[in-house]
Amino acid sequence: MTGLVHAHSGLRYLILAGFLWVIFNFIGKRNEAFDGGIKKAFLITMIFLHVQLIIGLVLYFKSAKSAMIFEDFGMAMGNSLTRFYGMEHMVGMLIGIALATVGYSKAKRMSDGVLAHAKAFKLYAIAFVIIFVSIPWPFLREFGTWF
Fold first, then answer.
1. Can you give the residue range of the structural domain that contains 32?
2. What is the DSSP letter of 77?
3. Where are the membrane-spanning stretches (predicted)?
4. How many domains is the chain partitioned into structurally?
5. Residue 139 domain-assigned?
6. Looking at residues 111-132, what average pLDDT do you find?
7. How far apart are the C-alpha atoms of 85 and 107, rounded to whole Å?
8. Does residue 130 lie within any of the structural domains?
9. 141, pLDDT greater than 90
């Protein structure tokens, strides 16, 4: 279980690097089509997100941090640590991953490559913000960690 926790914590940095790759690609290549290296940046970030999702779901259903949600929902919501890991973190991440997935899926089906790039970027940017604030950073939460 500890290995999965460390993998889950460490993978967040690869995901954030992927989001930065997408952002800098968009800034530098705003008027380019959604193909080649641009599409690869979006795809690799989305793959990291889905791997993170699988690890996160295993941890969610096996972790003591979220087990209280299933035992006593009312008491779990009264505890900030349990509420965060049991609900806020999970819901925020699911929304962020869904937005990124929809952004990539819609963009790859669009015929106008430049418009597709902008559409994917918009949804990835929203996903990035939601995911960033849903991570248990030590500067955002009293119980967050760097790794």
1. 2-134
2. H
3. 12-29, 41-61, 81-102, 123-140
4. 1
5. no
6. 94
7. 32
8. yes
9. no
Q: Is the residue at 84 inside a domain? A: yes
Nearest to 100 by CA among 75, 77, 121, 116: 121
For residue 33, the number of C-alpha atoms closer than 13 Å in the C-beta half-sphere is 8
Hey, what are 36's tokens? 């080649």
In angstroms, what CA-CA distances link 19 with 47, 70, 132? 12, 33, 10
CA distances to 16, 24, 118 from 125, in Å:
11, 12, 10
State the Cα–Cα distance between residues 50 and 140, nearest whole angstrom.
24
pLDDT 10s digits, 99-112 = 999 999 999 999 89
Burial 42-70, CB ≥16 within 10 A → b, else e:
bebbbebbeebbebbeebbeebebbebbe
Determine, yes or no, domain membership for 125.
yes
